[in-house]
């Protein structure tokens, strides 16, 4: 999860801000994929290629994806359900059990 201790955040925040300044609304998704891939590849090289390191890298990427979905996509989709109505009919979903 991305919730590291507040005292560790300054180790990365300036570099992240500099990189973020190069990204705008027109930046293609492929460019973001490139950035993430290069960071993870660098981390793998630093640690040494092994099954455990690869499992850690895949786990980091998967949990980052899931946390984005949980924290950002789900609330967005819930708002869209409220705005536009349910599409799953009588199938049981969290949104129909409110």
Structure report:
This protein is mainly alpha-helical. The protein has one domain (6-84). The chain has helices spanning 10-21, 29-47, 51-84.
Distance between the termini: 28 Å
Q: Largest beta sheet, briefly?
A: none
Uncertain segments are: none
Q: State the share of residues found in helices, binned by percent.
A: 55-70%
Shape: extended
What's the β-strand tally? 0
Give the overall pLDDT as a whole number: 94
Task: Summarize the helices and strands and which ones pair or pack.
Layout: H1 10-21, H2 29-47, H3 51-84
List its salient traits.
66% helix; mainly alpha; 0% strand; 3 helices; 98 residues; extended
In short:
The chain has 98 residues and is mostly helical.
């Amino acid at each position: 999860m991305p919730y590291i201790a507040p005292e560790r955040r300054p180790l990365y925040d300036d570099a992240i801000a500099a990189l973020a300044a190069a990204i705008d609304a027109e930046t293609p998704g492929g460019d973001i994929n490139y950035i993430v891939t290069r960071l993870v590849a660098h981390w793998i090289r630093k640690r040494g290629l092994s099954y455990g390191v690869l499992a850690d890298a895949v786990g980091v990427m998967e949990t980052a994806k899931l946390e984005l979905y949980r924290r950002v996509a789900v609330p967005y989709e819930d708002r869209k359900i409220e705005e536009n109505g349910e599409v799953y009919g009588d199938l049981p979903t969290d949104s129909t059990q409110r």
